[in-house]
Amino acid sequence: MPNVELELDIQAQDDGQKLKTYAATGNLPDIFQAGQDLISTFKKSGNILVLDDYVKTLKFKDQMQPSAMNTLVSDDGHTYAFPYAGNELVLLYYNKELFQQNNVKVPTTYDELAAAAKTFTANGITPLALFAKEKWPDVALYDMIVTRSEPAGITKLDKGQAQVTDPVYKDAAQKVIDLVKAGLLPKGATNLNADQAAALFHEGKAAMFINGQWEIEASTKALGDKVDWMYYPAADAAAYEKSKYAFSGGGGPGGYAVSANTKDKDLAAKVAAFMSLKYAEYKYIQRGNPIVATKVTKEIVKKFPPMMEKLSQDIPKITSTSAFAWGLTAPKFKATLEDQSQNLLTGGYSADQFIKDLGKSIETAK
Prior knowledge:
The chain contains 15 helices and 10 strands.
């Protein structure tokens, strides 16, 4: 596109606050990255362009992976962003060497996870590095437990398909509290950012780490064949086997969106679609990441690391996914779930209060 010049503005990792400020002042970029939260917000304010016609004229749907169609269309049946990421997943990484050196079994149950936490703590090792300051990992930890009993996890609450008083949601909150009391997390976990938590794991100071599958490359580079990911522990052996392929995480509408106020809507939409296709292509062939929304026909340049190869073999076996916190559609519920999931990690918050506060956020949103 020799007629196109891009002026780049780095998108801050601030949960969309910078873009929301741009929108409020009428200064949105022509093209910007948007997830479900921004799509919902900008739909109401009229700041985001509906891309339905461009999906047709650019034949974008024909270039989508069939399993990733949920990333193209929002709940109202319209497209607001051209997606590049497929259904991403929360993984529980672990340092195989630390487990072996400390004679700790890779946990399959909560009791085994609590026992592992106590052993590692006694030996001066952080059991689980969690960058709880950013809140979405806090929601992920909670959701990982919910999905052992309810595969749809937090999405059922988000969509109004379940009651917050259903036992599974309180039980999961209590389990988080119990695991924290067992010493699963380091002191001050709610002040730990992503770089700090990753450093603990990469430097062999933490036995486990929660992050998305995008962490595979960094952990492989830091730890080599010492690192792997495990299936989430469950209440007992039967529940572990039954829920093994129910993953926390998932995907939703999102990708490169276009400002409703851009001067040349046709050109901006064409560039946004092109960027999403190229980004997916890069992720797949250069980064060895098979979790993309669109079809890639080029040969992969970089072989999958062992953990990604393992995941790619499991992708066809996945029975369900839930959502990341940023994929939730009810803003008040999302904000409350983030705050209260973080509170569960402090040791001063009960499961009853967690359910009560979540219930209030759902009621006020009606």
